[in-house]
Amino acid sequence: MMEEMLVLRLSKLMAQRGLCSRREADVYIERGWVKVNGVIVDVPGSKVLPDCVIELSTEAQREQGNSITILLHKPVGFVSTQAEHGYASASDLITQANHWTEDASRRQFTNQHTWNLAAAGRLDIDSTGLLVLTQDGRVARQLIGEDSEVEKEYLVRVQGNLSPTGLALLNHGLMLDDVPLKPAKVRWQNRDQLSFILREGKKRQIRRMCELVGLNVIGLKRIRIGRVMLGYLPMGRWRYLTDQEQF
Hints:
Layout: H1 2-5, E1 8-9, H2 10-16, H3 22-30, E2 34-36, E3 39-40, E4 47-48, E5 54-56, H4 58-66, E6 69-74, E7 118-119, E8 128-134, H5 137-144, E9 152-159, H6 164-171, E10 175-176, E11 179-180, E12 185-190, E13 193-198, H7 205-212, E14 216-225, E15 228-229, E16 238-240
Parallel strand pairs: 8-14
Antiparallel strand pairs: 1-4, 2-3, 2-5, 6-8, 6-16, 7-8, 9-13, 9-14, 10-11, 12-13, 14-15
């Protein structure tokens, strides 16, 4: 009976509790940095009871404290993740030369800050704006985890005629890939530009939503993720997320 209750992988449970990402959990477990009910567990893939007590060692906490998160103003022509089809990855822009001189974090750039950077959310090759790159699995889970409710705000230049019914559908009622979309907040920003606020991020979602109501997107820029704004960060430049900022 007890064996039937051991249904959760330790790494998955750690991620669900927001302790770290599953990838980080596997590393911490292998290094002997995780205790379950007071006992070190160092075998990746171990299963535990869902109500167990999990503790991270001081080494794991120190490593998390050294993890950095970067905010990039992504230009057109760069992909968010790994380089593909001859296009460079946005992470290639994280260099000393592109570090914004007005970065308020006061952090000093080192090459270690480019290790294991992962994009926490996509921004397609034809779009610009705020892209988050992070070494911290907790940040990634907050922004792109299955239960994430963090808002993302976009300014979208469009061509075409949108009826009042079309605007209502953009706010709620459309489906992509036979799955209903979560309610959005869409309004006219000016004569040819819409403001979109979403709580999900399907592939090319805004462009596909607009196509469904007869609009063609000719420009898309993300200006906010949660409580963090793109602000005056110049295109192609990046800065560190400060200790005072939270998504």
